[in-house]
């Protein structure tokens, strides 16, 4: 287990798992309602299917970016190509004034993943 993790409530677990794995995440385990994924040994992501009585309404993750360091074997350009192949909404890459190059990819549930590498 890594030191950092995030839990994301998803509407379609199979669709979300396919999306994240196509971006380069590795599946660690799957035990409903959780699917445990990992990004480059640095961040664990738990995709959680909420109970039926919990209605997911509105935009998810408003004001939140899940930050991920893009580095070998998943460079920022590689993630960009993978996201484009998935038809995902992509913003960037953008060179920031704080000397990073950043890409924002929106997942099927509207969560925004911020991939970052040194500029």
TrEMBL record:
Gene3D superfamilies cross-referenced by the UniProt entry: 2,3-Dihydroxybiphenyl 1,2-Dioxygenase, domain 1
Database matches in InterPro entries: Glyas_Bleomycin-R_OHBP_Dase, Glyas_Fos-R_dOase_dom, VOC_core
Entry keyword Lyase: yes
Ranges for domain VOC: 2-118
GO MF term list: lyase activity
Keywords of the record: Lyase
Top-rank taxon: Bacteria
Pfam families reported for this sequence: Glyoxalase
Record flagged with keyword Lyase: yes
Coiled coil: none
PROSITE patterns in the record: VOC
PANTHER family linked: BLR2520 PROTEIN
Protein name listed in UniProt: Predicted lactoylglutathione lyase
UniProt organism field: Myxococcus virescens
């Amino acid at each position: 287990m890594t030191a950092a993790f995030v839990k994301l409530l998803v509407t379609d677990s199979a669709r979300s798992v396919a999306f994240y794995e196509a971006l380069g995440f590795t599946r660690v385990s799957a035990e409903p309602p959780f699917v445990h994924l990992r990004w480059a040994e640095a961040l664990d992501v738990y995709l959680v299917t909420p109970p039926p009585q919990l209605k997911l309404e509105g935009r998810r993750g408003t004001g939140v970016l899940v930050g991920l360091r893009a580095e070998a074997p998943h460079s920022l350009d590689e993630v960009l190509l993978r996201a484009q192949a998935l038809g995902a909404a992509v913003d960037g890459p953008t060179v920031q004034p704080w000397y990073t190059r950043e890409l924002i990819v929106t997942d099927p549930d509207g969560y925004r993943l911020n991939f970052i590498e040194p500029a």
